[in-house]
Design goal:
Length: 238
C-alpha cells in the first residue's frame, strides 16, 4: 500500500478534472454504466425515502448525483458536499444550490476525519470514492462512521470500482473484459494508461467484502442493485 497515491496526489489530479466530472449525460467514460447507475441510485433514493431532509454526498466531485437527485424530488433538502478538491466543491455548490431552498454546505476534507453530525442524515451517497480506502481498518472505520451518521431508517448508496477475490475471475473480468472495453474506447495505450492509474491510485474491494462489512457495521438490509464486470452499485439501510 505504500506505493499507492497519497491523498494530496489524488486531490491534485481531481483539481484538474472538473469539466470531465460535470457531465450528466456521459458520466465517466472509463466507468461502466455510469449514467445507468446514476439513474438507478437516484430513483432508488426517491422510492425508499419518503421525505428527504438531509443529504450527504461523500467524495461528491462536481455534484452530478445531487444534481440528478434534486431533479426528481421537491423536498428541498439540506445538502452537505464533501470532497478533497476545492475546484470540485466550488463547481458542485454552483450546480446544486439553485436546485434546493435548503442549505448547501461544502467541506474540503477527507470524509473520515470531517466533523459531520451523527444520526443526522436521511441519505448518504458514496460514488467512485471508497476505492481510495486502503487497509481493512480504513474500510471498517469508514463503514462504522456511515452507520453513525445516518438517522434510523436512513440509507447509504454506493457505486464504485470493485474487484474479485478469485485471481482467475479478477483476470477475466478486469484485465481481459474491462481491458477490451477500454481498448474499444480508444486503443491499447489508453487501456494501459487507465490500468496504470488504477494500480497507482485505487485499492478496491469485492462486492461481498463490502456488503458483509455493511451488515457487520449494523445495517439491517443490504441490496445489490447492479454489477457489470468490475463496477457495482449497492445500498444499505440502517
Amino acid at each position: 500500500m505504500e506505493q499507492k497515491s497519497t491523498l494530496k496526489e489524488i486531490e491534485e489530479r481531481f483539481d484538474q478534472d472538473v469539466a470531465r466530472f460535470s457531465n450528466l449525460e456521459t458520466g465517466q467514460q472509463t466507468t461502466l454504466d455510469a449514467s445507468f447507475n446514476m439513474e438507478l441510485i437516484t430513483d432508488g433514493i426517491v422510492a425508499t425515502t419518503s421525505h428527504l431532509k438531509k443529504l450527504l454526498d461523500i467524495g461528491c466531485g462536481a455534484g452530478n448525483y445531487p444534481v440528478k437527485l434534486l431533479s426528481k424530488t421537491t423536498s428541498n433538502p439540506d445538502v452537505t458536499l464533501v470532497d478533497l478538491s476545492k475546484p470540485m466543491l466550488d463547481k458542485a455548490r454552483e450546480r446544486v444550490q439553485p436546485l434546493t431552498t435548503g442549505r448547501v454546505t461544502t467541506i474540503k476534507e477527507d470524509f473520515r476525519t470531517a466533523a459531520l453530525e451523527e444520526t443526522a442524515y436521511d441519505v448518504i451517497i458514496a460514488t467512485a470514492t471508497l476505492h481510495h480506502l486502503r487497509e481493512d481498518a480504513d474500510w471498517e472505520a469508514a463503514f462504522a462512521k456511515f452507520y453513525r451518521l445516518l438517522k434510523p431508517g436512513g440509507s447509504i448508496w454506493i457505486f464504485d470500482l470493485v474487484t474479485e477475490d478469485h485471481p482467475s475471475l479478477r483476470h477475466l473480468l478486469f484485465t481481459q473484459q474491462y481491458g477490451n472495453y477500454l481498448t474499444g474506447l480508444k486503443d491499447e495505450a489508453y487501456r494501459d494508461h487507465v490500468f496504470a492509474y488504477i494500480e497507482k491510485e485505487d485499492s478496491p474491494r469485492s462486492v461481498l467484502y463490502q456488503t458483509n462489512l455493511l451488515q457487520q457495521s449494523g445495517f439491517k438490509t443490504v441490496a445489490l442493485l447492479h454489477k457489470h464486470l468490475c463496477f457495482a452499485s449497492f445500498a444499505a439501510f440502517k
